[in-house]
Amino acid sequence: MKFERFIKQIDVNYKQKISAANLPKKVLDKLDSTLSKDITTVRGLDFYHIVASVSQDFDNDTANAFEEYFKKKKFKDDAEATDIDNKYKAFIKQFIVLQQDVAQGAKIEDIRLSRILNREISDFLAWEVYAIAVSRSKKIKTAFEQLYKE
């Protein structure tokens, strides 16, 4: 689905709301280009500022945006079975979160996540921020705000 179509579903008066919002210059400069993209290719920064300017319920609208995408997305589960042979290991395991666990839970390729974290790729895609938030039981808007709220 095109990002503009999604935004229009949230609010038919999206153009006025976006114009009235105080969006960062780097988001405004590429607004037309961003709106014409497929929603799964929109960068997190752009998604956050544009959706936040038109949405009354950021978490719900974001979940609706990517729900269908995740239904279609197929990932092979390459997780290795971890032997937890005693209650002490089981207890500690709940506190350990590895980068690989985050990637796997969010269905992001390990290599891509590493490249983002090492700043070889400039930003997450919006669906990746959503997926990380959901997989880590974090409020969606809170995750976007931590990354993009200025």
UniProtKB/TrEMBL annotation:
Highest taxon of the source? Bacteria
Listed name of the protein: Uncharacterized protein
The record lists the organism as: Sphingobacterium gobiense
